[in-house]
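User: quick one, sequence for these tokens?
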């Protein structure tokens, strides 16, 4: 997949920008605060329908204006795709694919695949479980429509079940409450376990891919990703043998169910659902120790890079084409040796957008592709 053209109108510090991207490397060079990351953010927005820096779309509108518009043309193996994202205060964010308005994110996610590596990424390791669930959900959602639907269903069931638990708080012994909760439990378990099984399988795949990338970026030790569900499933991650999905679904459903029975009084007292995939986590281990607690910042950064490269491999195998790689501020994120490995990796022909303040980065690249000079919201091609 390639991003061919990008158009921005009143987006962040750009009044009007039209650029054509190179199929290989695109370098955005400029001092701090000039608008390099804003371009990366715009590409990400077109790929995923949302910013990774803010959930408030209004912040993306150029100060003093009220609306923004972005358009990007992707060239995919099954045809060209024009993605338009627009925002106005009255109508909120609107997305069109090849001119057709999209009603929900469920239909939209996965239309174009982008992978980003940037300064905020450390939160995947250092942050709370919610960051890792967000990561997993967006990875799986981008390639699996069924998962997107399951997630939406699960969220709905969870909200309704929690509301019911709150309402039923003072009727703990009522037979009606018991019967109603039995029904909610059934639904929660059936959708919840589908999500858990998918997560377990994807984490297993990511673990193997990330370990390969980890070795390639010349890091020592064994990197592993381990699934930590909210209740004990005996074997917290799948072994390397072919996973028996049906067997696992049956077993985990029974365990999930038992857990809900055990926790019912507690749940009724507190008015929330205490167990399920909304409380899942994933652990990064290096030679068996938890990286969150014991690894250096540099090691954590390298692990996130390995994870991003694993993401590229994962998308290629699921979608049959490469994602677009966005590298924000690599010079400050990675040492020269790790960068050299990264350049080798993307020389396989992955379209990349690289932001940097450091001209020397250009000299590190075998084929620098296109260089754009970014200054105060205007962009000029330098070569
Ligand atoms: N909604 C907005 N309207 C106008 N300008 C904005 C808006 N949001 C951010 N900016 C400006 O955009 C600039 C930041 O751009 P960006 O984050 O792309 O910088 P950068 O070139 O990546 O810098 P660095 O090298 O420090 O990462 C800031 O100067 C900020 O004031
Ligand atoms: Mg930046």
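Assistant:
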């Amino acid at each position: 997949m390639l991003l061919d053209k990008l158009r921005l109108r009143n987006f962040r510090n750009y009044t009007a920008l039209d650029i054509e991207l190179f199929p290989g490397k695109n370098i955005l060079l400029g001092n701090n605060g000039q608008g390099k990351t804003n371009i990366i953010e715009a590409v990400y927005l077109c790929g995923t329908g949302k910013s990774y820096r803010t959930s408030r779309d209004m912040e993306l509108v150029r100060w003093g204006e009220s609306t923004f518009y972005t358009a990007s043309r992707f060239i995919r193996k099954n045809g060209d795709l024009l993605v338009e994202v627009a925002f106005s205060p009255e109508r909120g964010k609107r997305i069109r694919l090849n001119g057709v308005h999209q009603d929900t994110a469920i239909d939209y996610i996965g239309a174009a695949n982008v992978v980003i590596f940037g300064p905020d990424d450390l939160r995947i390791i250092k942050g709370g479980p919610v960051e890792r669930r967000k990561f997993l959900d967006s990875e799986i959602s981008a390639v699996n429509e069924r998962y997107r639907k399951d997630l939406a269903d699960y969220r709905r069931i969870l909200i309704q079940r929690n509301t019911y638990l709150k309402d039923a708080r003072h009727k703990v012994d009522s037979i009606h409450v018991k019967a109603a909760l039995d029904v909610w439990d059934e639904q929660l378990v059936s959708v919840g376990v589908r999500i858990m099984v998918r997560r377990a399988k994807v984490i297993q795949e990511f673990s193997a891919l990330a370990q390969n990338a980890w070795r390639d970026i010349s890091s020592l030790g064994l990197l592993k990703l381990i699934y930590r569900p909210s209740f004990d499933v005996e074997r917290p991650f799948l072994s390397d043998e072919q996973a028996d999905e049906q067997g696992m679904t049956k077993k985990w459903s029974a365990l999930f169910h038992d857990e809900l029975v055990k926790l019912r009084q507690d749940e009724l007292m507190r008015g929330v659902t205490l167990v399920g995939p909304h409380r899942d986590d994933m652990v990064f281990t290096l030679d068996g120790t938890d990286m969150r607690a014991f690894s250096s910042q540099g090691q954590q950064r390298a692990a996130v890079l390995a994870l991003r490269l694993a993401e590229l491999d994962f998308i290629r195998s699921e979608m049959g084409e490469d994602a677009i790689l966005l590298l924000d501020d690599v010079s400050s994120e990675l040492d020269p040796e790790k960068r050299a490995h990264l350049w080798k990796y993307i020389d396989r022909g992955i379209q990349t957008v690289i932001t940097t303040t450091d001209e020397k980065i250009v000299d590190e690249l075998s084929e620098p592709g296109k260089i754009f000079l970014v200054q105060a919201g205007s962009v000029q091609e330098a070569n």
